[in-house]
């Protein structure tokens, strides 16, 4: 199992609007496609920072879920253009991490 920590920079001053879009549209859509969303955060020190975490059993599951989500018509035609209007896309950072043996996220 591994996690994907996704760090985003939102267009200045639009973070509250972004969080609403994530919680009302993006996360529910991804959950409906089988994605496991572990957490969602706003950065306490950066007014435009946002972080969320997703969990995958293995690389095969990740690839299948990516295909389901990002290959769907709804994602490509509706959600992705809106996401790109909110984010500084060139600043997206994705880190894959594996929990240690005593981690509470096993």
TrEMBL record:
<dbReference type="Pfam" id="PF07978">
    <property type="entry name" value="NIPSNAP"/>
</dbReference>
<feature type="domain" description="NIPSNAP">
    <location>
        <begin position="3"/>
        <end position="103"/>
    </location>
</feature>
<dbReference type="InterPro" id="IPR011008">
    <property type="entry name" value="Dimeric_a/b-barrel"/>
</dbReference>
<dbReference type="InterPro" id="IPR012577">
    <property type="entry name" value="NIPSNAP"/>
</dbReference>
<protein>
    <submittedName>
        <fullName>NIPSNAP family protein</fullName>
    </submittedName>
</protein>
